[in-house]
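Hey L., structure's done. Input below.
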Amino acid sequence: MALNLVYTTSIPKIFSCSNPVQIQELNLTDAAAYEREVQRRLAEPGAQLSVFVVDMGGISKIFARSGQEAATSFLKVVARLLVRVCRQDDKVCRIGDSAFGIILQDVTSPVLLQLAAEKINRLYSAAISEMDVSFQAKVCIGIASYPDHANDAKELLHNARLAAEAADSKGEPYLFYSPESVATLSMKWDIQADLASAIESNALALFYQPKVSIATGRVIGAEALLRWDNGEYGPVPPDVFIPVACDIGMINELSQYVLTTALRNAAEWPKTGERQSISINLESETLQDTEVDEIISSSLSIWGSDHIDLLLEITESALVADSKSNFRRLQSLRSMGVGISIDDFGTGYSSLSYFTNIPATELKIDKSFINDMLECGRSRSLVETIINLAHRFDLVVVAEGVEHPEELSVLAEMNCDVAQGFHIAEAMSHDDYCHWLKKQ
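Output:
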């Protein structure tokens, strides 16, 4: 996308300033000139300044959906909006396919820098509204100041880029440079490199947390929870490595591993005299894969067992993304005899339309409501309302995160169906779960 855009010599007017702004043509990737300008300003006596790296997510989506002309127009709209809120002594430059570099002269106050970052965020959203493009607004801003965060221009710009990447990794709109944020980013990069080999070498493991009937106390199944003990960093939480797998395009491979391993292990569980279910979490990216039906069907034909039911747990947010297509896919899975569970209910985009449209068999109330209901009357009322409503639509209701006997007693009074949590049992390895199940 080689093009020239109209840019200004300054950046967001966080201070009141009515001076006219000079416009100039800058090359698309004039990052070298930008670095030279930072270096020149740092050479001045008593220099103080901050730099922003503004990574504009969504440019590639505009380009893919609408072509280069639309992406170019969007960038010009962003530049024009920046022109309106500029100070004469500052500078903005295009430094890459989807990034602006910004110099804020004599501004190092975190409060003022935060205001500037928030203003840039609003400008980006305004550009999206003006262009009437349909994608989620996202901009990640990295902030670094001299002399606090660097000794020279190259280091200053490098640290601002690291902060922008850290902001993107954490899902934050902006971040100030800090050694801690860079260390977290470095760990993510290492995890990306290690994840593929972890799958190939079976370094990942599934643990199983029991689900019991509240009415009878009998075990009715378990949820498979993926664990990874990285040699360098130790245990890596799923909420860290699952997004990494999505970012690097390995989530389907990871889901296939969980599916086949869970079905194979469940077939070895001791029989309890009644059917058991194995629950696995299905990420949004896997649900939207057009081949997911075939993958699950093939896995069931190879690893399925007569006394084990497969239950797929889908979060509310995953359902909202392309809901019509997802609902059709879930209906296809239901026709195979696969159960569908709405996971973490109450924390996403809850809607009564779920109960009338989604082919679900189970609903899991998020643990935050369960843990609060003994102390908070509203949480208790909400839990009871969800249970009653779900039962109206013939859904089995699971309470997640049950940690105390008092919570179990209240849930029994509310006619909740199933409990899962530390009060029942913690997640265990396959061997430990088989041993625990025999004792039950």
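The chain has two domains: 4-177, 190-439. Residues 287 and 326 are 7 Å apart (CA to CA).

-- N.
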